[in-house]
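Cross-check.
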Amino acid sequence: MNGSFRRLTVGIGLAAAFAAFSSSSVQAEGTLTLGMTVADIPSSKGAPDQGAEGIRWMGFTVYDSLVYWNLNQSKTIPVIVPALAHKFYPNPENNKEWIFELRKDVTFHDGSKFNADAVIWNLDKLFKEKAPQYDLQQRRAVAWRLAGIKTWRKIDDYKVAIGDNVPNALIPHQIVYVHISSPKHWADVGGWEAFAKHPSGTGPFKVEEIVPRERAVLVRNDNYWDKDRIPKLDKVILLPMPEASTRTAAILSGQANFIEAPSPDAVPRLKSSGMQIITNPYPHVWPYVLRLAGENTPMKDVRVRKALNLAIDRDAIVQLLRGMAVPAKGHVLPDSPWFGNPSFKIEYNPEKAKALLKEAGYGPDKPLKIKFMISTSGSGQMQPMPMNELVQQQLKKVNVDLSFEVTEWQALRAQRGKGPLDPGAREIHALNNSFGTYDPYSAFERFFSCDLLPPKGLNWAGVCDDEIQALIKKIKETFDPKEQDELLAKIHEHVVDNAYWVWVVHDVNPRALRPEVKGFRQAKSWYQDLTQIYIEK
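Predicted model, tokenized:
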């Protein structure tokens, strides 16, 4: 078994950025100017904040991990492939570990050598609190993705072993999120604060400039180790643009030539103006994570949970988004090998929803009153305000009074990390947080394992189900992909039949590109590869 193992898989600042990079500069010298949905430049030290979008544009651009995904195609869900490790496999002498054999021809942007010591140093920065390079911000940003990484050791200068305390077939799905920063550069500049201003990784792009809340400028790494992925672009300029209307105006005016999540209402105008609108369904879901833990939560009643799922007209939400989504039938896409055959069918059935709520003690004279925490924008949040307002109207029809606590994306993420028992969540019954579901760990373990309740993990709902727990354990011990699929389908059936979340729609990853932007292949993934893009003059 090696790297082919399957699925190892706007304010003044913005105006200043626009002034600095006019439309003429966008189209010259192979520069891609990219409008992000986040409100600030993601942290650049190696473990980006701002959610998965931070990882997409400030993680896998500037940094590499030991493994990666085959994002250079758009037909199939990407799988894990070798990256800084040219080969990886379970340790034949200890099935609790994976062996990673490292490339010998890699250097950091500062010119120092990548080797096993650098890998150990980067794991220590996340987990070893007494290490000089330990960084709490990076740990908080990424440690919840790495719940299975418990041990690491150097075998020789170009071989390391990384493992769990138990057999864990999912380790490569987690190690992909460990971006390797330069130990020498950290020491030379004197710590993480200075490092963040002038970071050094091994990735295809180097950081030239960072202006918080305004822009980050990345330039091509001509010495990149993977010659097939040396960027065709000279430069990428990242601009934080949390408002969809701002992103739309930027691409129409030429102040950007690539934007994330254009407003659905603006798509006809963008198309008539010659813009490319690119979509591709991928493993990603826009749900409500229901609070089952603690007191004062009606979500403990499965009848309430099922009623909420049945009260939502998902086709109306897709229509609101001008087709930029597909209705959710569960946690994963219906064509996923993990979908299985749930007995609870997620559909629009308001009469059945009202009947279930009546059984649970709610009705016209006693409406169910609940509050959801939502964000105004953010990584993968699509168009959260109009979507949530439509859901609010739909729930009203079945005697549910839904109110919102509206907050900024990072604030929602902070509450998510504290967990449902935190005093700040006492009146909150659900979080509206979109998620990628690309691999067994990301799709299920991190959300439904008893071992990953916050702050240790991402099981904000507080689900602790013996059947799911047993299946997760068995999946970790199963290294055959087909057997994994069968077990994952059982987890999905159980999760849906118990309606642990409310699932609304799956994203189709819409992006708008100006006509001169060529070479972009939109992967069926949250993560994308910018290295093959070029600007046609």
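Residues 284-507 form a domain with the Dipeptide-binding Protein; domain 3 fold (CATH 3.10.105.10). The chain has two domains: 12-262+510-535, 284-507. Passed to J.P. for a second look.
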